[in-house]
């Protein structure tokens, strides 16, 4: 994983990371609020050797002071504290030697500020008494130097620190979940996933757009500016996929049903026709035909009747618009695989490709064998995979099945790429642009002028100008 992949994972899981931080902060605050409020007070004493007044002390004083530190939690000291009338319930004591000196600090932690100060002072005096009483003849003495004062604020819990610690733990947990999720993800999520699994180059990335997503019974509507530009990019890349041997018959398939191949090839056929190149769209998915319903035509007579010899080809072809002709699937035959793999199908494609570019909507590769039989009759195959849905292993199996029949895979199309997803990187961030900005950039010049014109504009002249601009735009496409 390189730096770009790392940043990509962070961006795609930003909500997960934010949620981890928020949950961590909340958990830290809850933990902090559940902890008892404690106060810390500290008193100071020093160990002296008779005849010396230096706080730094001699080596003898420092060594003796170090030996007095464990006395703070001895039973004798605690008994003297209790005799002084100081409550030790819920409190704790600790002592330490200041490095490089003979100073002893006694710290008391208690639920009450007054209790903490009293306990620290009493403990220091009790420690000094016990230490002096252990060796009455010694010239080493422990003397209280500075009494503890009641603290103004509690020392524990530290809400800010606990919240920061909780947020850090939450962020680390979210990062671990994000990278584990990416590592174990079996679906195609990036353009790199699509190209590696298919073993072919990327021809296009179709955005996740409501105009490119429809039920099988819905008609194919006009694509949004964002989707239309992605399809035009696919058309351009297809033309340059094989410059020395440009394909005339192209099959579009997928590994599994529901990956959007029929919608992609239908939109691609419209884009090719709009560029001025005559194209015939053949619905070769004889088991689950889609194209007749997409374009709102009668598909009861089509390819299956032509292959069986029941009707002439000219009677089955349907002109949809200038330069675009549809050959529907027709009725579902009892032997679709045999029909698609027949020599009559090959002869039909060869005859039609003499005057038109042929786009073949083929069945998915994995469920049926139709596409692998048809792959040898076409000049090239495009494999459509859906972002976040298609499994990598399914694409790999489809790739291997096509390779066994020596199919020529022209490239892969990543369909359903979210606007904020990784597929937008293919266009340098184009798919990630704001939809309104994208629409404003690609709308026709006539639409721009119409939006800027006053409401009582030129009427008929403006409409004529709009028609002229639209025609010019289609010619440039």
Summarize the structure.
By secondary structure, this protein is α/β, with parallel strands linked by helices.
CATH superfamily heading of the largest domain: P-loop containing nucleotide triphosphate hydrolases
Q: What percent of residues are in strands?
A: 15-25%
CATH topology of the largest domain: Rossmann fold
How large, in whole angstroms, is the Cα Rg? 40 Å
Mean of all residue-level pLDDT scores:
82
The spatial strand order of the largest sheet comes to 5-12-11-6-10-7-9-8
Shape: rod-shaped
Number of helices: 19
The top-level CATH class of the largest domain is Alpha Beta
Largest sheet: 8 strands, mixed
Distance between the termini: 38 Å
- Stretches where pLDDT falls below 50 for ≥5 residues? 421-434, 444-477
Helix content, binned percent? 40-55%
Domain CobQ/CobB/MinD/ParA nucleotide binding: 250-381
InterPro entries: Bact_polysacc_biosynth/exp (IPR050445), CobQ/CobB/MinD/ParA_Nub-bd_dom (IPR002586), P-loop_NTPase (IPR027417), Wzc-like_C (IPR005702)
Protein name: Capsular exopolysaccharide synthesis family protein
Pfam family, one: CbiA
């Amino acid at each position: 994983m390189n730096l770009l992949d790392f940043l990509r994972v962070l961006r795609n899981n930003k909500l997960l990371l934010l949620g981890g931080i928020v949950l961590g902060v909340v958990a830290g605050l809850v933990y902090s609020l559940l902890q008892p409020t404690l106060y810390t007070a500290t008193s100071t004493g020093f160990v002296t050797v008779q005849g010396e007044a230096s706080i730094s002390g001699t080596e003898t004083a420092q060594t003796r002071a170090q030996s007095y530190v464990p006395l703070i939690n001895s039973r004798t000291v605690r008994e003297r504290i209790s005799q002084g009338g100081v409550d030790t319930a819920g409190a704790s004591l600790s002592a330490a030697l200041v490095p490089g000196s003979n100073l002893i600090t006694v710290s008391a932690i208690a639920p009450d500020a007054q209790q903490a100060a009293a306990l620290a002072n009493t403990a220091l005096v009790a420690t000094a008494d016990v230490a002096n009483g252990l060796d009455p003849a010694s010239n080493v003495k422990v003397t209280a130097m500075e009494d503890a004062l009641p603290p103004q604020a509690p020392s524990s819990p530290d809400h800010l620190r606990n919240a920061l610690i909780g947020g850090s733990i939450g962020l680390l947990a979210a990062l671990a979940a994000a990278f584990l999720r990416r590592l174990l993800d079996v679906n195609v999520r990036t353009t790199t996933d699509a190209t590696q699994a298919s073993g072919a180059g990327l021809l296009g990335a179709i955005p996740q757009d409501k105009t490119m997503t429809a039920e099988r019974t819905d008609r194919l509507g006009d694509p949004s500016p964002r989707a239309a530009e992605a399809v035009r990019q696919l058309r351009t890349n297809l033309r340059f996929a094989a410059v020395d041997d440009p394909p005339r018959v192209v099959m579009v398939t997928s590994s599994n049903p529901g990956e959007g191949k029929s919608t992609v090839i239908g939109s691609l056929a419209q884009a090719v026709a709009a560029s001025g190149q005559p194209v015939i769209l053949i619905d070769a998915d004889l088991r689950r035909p889609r194209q007749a319903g997409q374009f709102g035509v009668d598909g009861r007579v089509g390819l299956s009747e032509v292959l069986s010899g029941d009707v002439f080809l000219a009677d089955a072809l349907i002109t949809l618009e200038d330069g675009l002709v549809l050959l529907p699937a027709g009725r579902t035959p009892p032997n679709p695989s045999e029909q698609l793999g027949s020599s009559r199908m090959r002869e039909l494609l060869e005859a039609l490709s003499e005057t038109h570019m042929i786009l073949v909507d083929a069945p998915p590769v994995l469920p049926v064998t139709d596409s692998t039989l048809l792959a040898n009759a076409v000049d090239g195959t495009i494999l459509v995979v859906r972002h976040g849905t298609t499994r990598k292993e399914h694409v790999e199996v489809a790739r291997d099945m096509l390779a066994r029949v020596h199919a020529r895979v022209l490239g892969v199309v990543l369909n359903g790429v979210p606007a904020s997803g990784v597929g937008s990187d293919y266009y340098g961030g184009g798919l990630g642009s704001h939809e309104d900005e994208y629409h404003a950039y690609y709308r026709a010049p006539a639409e721009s002028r119409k939006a800027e014109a006053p409401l009582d504009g030129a009427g008929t002249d403006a409409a004529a100008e709009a028609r002229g601009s639209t025609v010019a735009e289609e010619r440039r496409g």
